[in-house]
Amino acid sequence: MAMFEDEPEPRKLQRLQPLMLDRLSVSELQDYIAELRVEIARTEADIDRKGRHRDAAEAFFRTP
């Protein structure tokens, strides 16, 4: 989010480079999907881990 109205919105960093899918066979596309699913699962696990860490920190610093 821009701090001031005249500032442009920051661009999101593109982490994955799009592949030329038309050059891949069906088997290669299926392998690519499997690789992406593994990366999604790894990312979701890290989100869960960080969420638990945040929850534990909030519980520790919560005033009774």
Structure description:
With 64 residues, the chain is mainly alpha-helical. Helix content is 56%, strand content 0%. The protein contains 1 helix and no strands. The protein has one helix spanning 26-61. The longest helix has 36 residues, at 26-61. The protein is flat. The model has no long low-confidence stretch (mean pLDDT 89).
How is the topology of this model organized?
Layout lengths: L25 H36 L3
Percent of residues in helices: 55-70%
Sheet bearing the most strands, described?
Answer: none
Computed CA radius of gyration, to the nearest angstrom: 20 Å
Calculate the terminal CA-CA distance, rounded to whole Å: 34 Å
Secondary-structure element sequence? H
The chain-level mean pLDDT equals 89
Low-confidence stretches: none
Shape: flat
Number of DSSP strand runs: 0
Strand content: under 5%
How many individual helices? 1
Structural class: mainly alpha
Q: Descriptors for this entry?
A:
64 residues, mainly alpha, 1 helix
Brief digest:
This protein is 56% helix and 0% strand.
